[in-house]
């Protein structure tokens, strides 16, 4: 339910940079009648992300405020009403976001925490679990709720001691892609099955695992791997791909972020084999254009893949399990226009407008005694 035009709801986001993965949610919120949105950040875009082809995202009608010092944060706070909802990036000290949290606590403001999947593998993970149990205990008096991004994140924070009733499954809600004529994509069973990888060439992303998994498939399986990205391991990965897959790999280099949805709309499957990803926005981008996705179970977007009814989720680092996921999807043949349309329709629940409505429902549940909402990607499974 949308707030009435006569009752203004004020929402303030606190982030270190303007997140390309949150911009569509923020813009869609600002389009809701009676909702005023402010986005506070230290900078618009980092240099590292500019080099990856990212451009400053549009926040629509939301007001963007840049702060560069604790004093600037302190001077900004009185401009917000006592009833404003403040959504902060993470629990821990995080640049000026941490400064804002401290001052907001002093004002007894309404604070929600926006938290990604936590990488708690190995010995560092044990330390993180202990540390976050302490952090959560100290946050209970002032943090109203957690918007928990990723398949395992809600349960992870509940096990650290945050009340489950105040933890809400959340996602990175992206912009809806331009309408695509699905009939223009061939489902010719005689063409190679098109598999895509989009990401940085670093150890975390595990392109090497995907190459090894594809090499395990029978020689009679007809596929082609298209790789988009760049990074320090490029030469090593190219040598590995040549040795194991020969001419079945096409290297596209770095594509502008705006061209990724169109690229994904022309393949049969996206694979995100990462050892860990807070969400993995490229998975949402694939689903939004009707392309099935496969990802590891340590990617936050495994939550979306599981409910999509397409693609698959495999245990991180398990090349055999990834090969089985690939074999099963390839056996279904190239994605038909009908399957693309069905999946893309379901994936609207991962778009900015759906995310904005869901966030308003969460706020109504917390502060107006409305019913607890169901995440939009769970309402209609693919």
Strand-helix topology:
Layout (H helix, E strand, L loop, with lengths): L8 E6 L8 H8 L4 E7 L5 H5 L11 E4 L3 H7 L8 E5 L6 H11 L3 E6 L6 H18 L3 E7 L3 H7 L7 E4 L22 E6 L8 H9 L7 E6 L5 H12 L3 E5 L6 H5 L4 E4 L8 H8 L4 E4 L5 H7 L3 E3 L4 H13 L5 H10 L5 H17 L7 H4 L3
Parallel strand pairs: 1-2, 1-4, 2-3, 4-5, 5-6, 6-7, 8-9, 8-11, 9-10, 11-12, 12-13
Helix pairs in contact: 1-14, 7-8, 7-12
Description:
- With 382 residues, this protein is of the alpha/beta class.
- The chain has two domains: 197 residues, 3-Layer(aba) Sandwich (Rossmann fold); 165 residues, Glycogen Phosphorylase B (Rossmann fold, 3-Layer(aba) Sandwich).
- The protein contains 15 helices and 13 strands.
- The strands form two sheets. It has a seven-stranded parallel β-sheet, with helices on both faces.
- The longest helix has 18 residues.
- The N terminus is likely disordered.
Structural descriptors:
seven-stranded parallel beta sheet; Rossmann fold; 15 helices; six-stranded parallel beta sheet; 382 residues; alpha/beta; 2 domains
